[in-house]
Amino acid sequence: MRLGIVGTGKMGSLLKQTLEKQNNESIAAVHRGYELQTLSEPPELIFDFSHPDNLQALLEYALNHHVKLVLGTTNYTQKQQLSIHAAAMQIPIIQEANFSLGIAVLKQALKQITPILNEDFDIEIIEKHHNQKVDAPSGTAKQLAQIMNHMHQYNELYGRRGECGQRGKEIGIHAIRGGNLAGEHTILYLGEDESLEITHKAVTKQIFIHGAIKAAAFLSDKEKGYYTMEDVLSMWEEVNGTSGNHRYD
Ligand SMILES: NC(=O)C1=CN([C@@H]2O[C@H](COP(=O)(O)OP(=O)(O)OC[C@H]3O[C@@H](n4cnc5c(N)ncnc54)[C@H](OP(=O)(O)O)[C@@H]3O)[C@@H](O)[C@H]2O)C=CC1
Ligand SMILES: O=C(O)C1=N[C@H](C(=O)O)C[C@H](O)C1
Fold first, then answer.
1. Ligand 1 contact via 7 beta carbon (within 6 Å)
2. What is the band of 90 on the pLDDT scale with cuts at 50, 70, 90?
3. Which of 10, 31, 65, 133 is catalytic?
4. What does the alpha-carbon distance between residue 161 and residue 166 come to, in Å, rounded to a whole number?
5. Tell me: the pLDDT tens digits for 149-169?
6. 31 is a catalytic site residue
7. Is the peptide bond before 115 cis (omega within 30 degrees of 0)?
8. Which of 31, 38, 50, 187 is at a distance of 20 to 30 A from 129, taking alpha carbons?
9. 8 A C-beta contact, residue 104 and residue 233
10. Pocket lining for ligand 2, CB < 6 angstroms
């Protein structure tokens, strides 16, 4: 399959290296979305791990050439999100702020746990990432908050400072930056005399790459539509059953 990558940073480079090791024949990596126009032949699928500023050129190119998209970039605006959903009416797009299996499973767990605890427990999220990450909080933390807040009953509060008053009906979201941490997300349910903490730790960036490649395989027979890793996970469960002998790669 002819593959393209937008973004030549940490994720883009690691993805290219991994795809090359897997003997993918044609991989065109570009630095900016508008450089896609210079390719002699359109890729069948493009991965994007770059910056929201590349989105418009990427969507225009993908729509013109009917290219499948795997979008891993975080921190899109609401307007950009709408343009992604509009494009997915014509081409297949899988978008995920975090391609790891652990986070896909965590999202399912939060959907079960939160309605049971939300009356009596306060909810906080702490995310930790490397010192070169440009956006905060992480796309994953925002998605996890959205999942727990799907009824819009909480105020999403980014950090606290000064005289902020007693805690209200809110989800506090806190970003730590330092070193070369690949990415950690902790959900804290804090109640009277008990608390529950769930942490996902990405040990290396390679897990995101494996997940993105799985996501690309998932798109192979799709003509159009908007998908996430939850769709990939559901497919996995259908293929392997839920017996526990799950193999992700
Ligand atoms: N979905 C997932 O599982 C994961 C998602 N990510 C996300 O992927 C994205 C890239 O991460 P990472 O590779 O670590 O980041 P890097 O900073 O290493 O790379 C970013 C890339 O985007 C380009 N870029 C930066 N600013 C702009 C701009 N204003 N306009 C156009 N292009 C720009 C950079 O070009 P230049 O070299 O010129 O700066 C570089 O090619 C981030 O949004 C991150 O959150 C990361 C890991 C996992
Ligand atoms: O920039 C990163 O590194 C990561 N970004 C994603 C995010 O913002 O959630 C996913 C992962 O945690 C690593």
1. yes
2. very high
3. 133
4. 12
5. 998 999 999 999 999 999 999
6. no
7. no
8. 31
9. yes
10. 74, 97-98, 129, 133, 138-140, 183
